[in-house]
Amino acid sequence: MTRKTFLLFITVTFAYSQTTHVHASENSTSVKVQDVISDLQRSIASLKRLEESSFNVSTAESSQKREELTRLGYICSEDVGWHKLHTTRKTWNRARRSCEDEDAHLAIVNSIGEAQVLSERIKKAGIYSVFIGIHDQFEEGDWVTVVGGSINKTGYVRWSEGLPNNYQTYNLTEVAANCGTMNYEGAFMDVYCYKKYAYICEYPLISINC
């Protein structure tokens, strides 16, 4: 058995159920990987529709949405956008769905400026790293964002030294690392999707300015 096959086996064996199509509890020792992938694909389509609709938002609607985002705890930074740091730790898929419940998505870092803003918030909260909207669950080594594009087209990619390496030690066991976090220094790490981290949501509608 190759190392990659072994890690995939361990991941499937120890992964907790994360989709609405899996009726086992999160403490289950198996996961329907195809259901997770299907859920991600549906999410991509939904987020793209949200972004397309942003171009037709009126001034009144923008003002109303701005008030709603502020009420939800989102903070807007000029030239960066609206973000919210959730300190309650969740698995990557639950964090992703939590953001979508707010019509947002896990943060996608598009610039050094955005990385600096988010890093400062992470550091100020006393957190080492948070889930962001990148993963390679569709194909090993092909890192993409939650809206479907390659991370190489985002404008900002900075991995911690030696990463990604596709494995992480979890409960004294090596497991596949297919989801991304960013630490307080702005560096990405590949981690086990079912380990719980804090996370950052980003509001995707570019027409809602600060």
Automatic annotation (TrEMBL):
| Annotated transmembrane regions | none
The question of whether DNA repair is a record keyword is answered with no
Give UniProt keywords alphabetically.
Answer: Signal
Name under which the protein is recorded: C-type lectin domain-containing protein
InterPro entries with a match to the protein in the record: C-type_lectin-like, C-type_lectin-like/link_sf, C-type_lectin/snaclec_domain, CTDL_fold
Q: What is the lineage of its organism?
A: Eukaryota, Metazoa, Ecdysozoa, Arthropoda, Hexapoda
Native species: Trichomalopsis sarcophagae
Which residues belong to any copy of the C-type lectin domain?
Answer: 83-202
What Pfam families does the database record attribute to this sequence? Answer: Lectin_C (PF00059)
- Residues in the signal sequence: 1-17
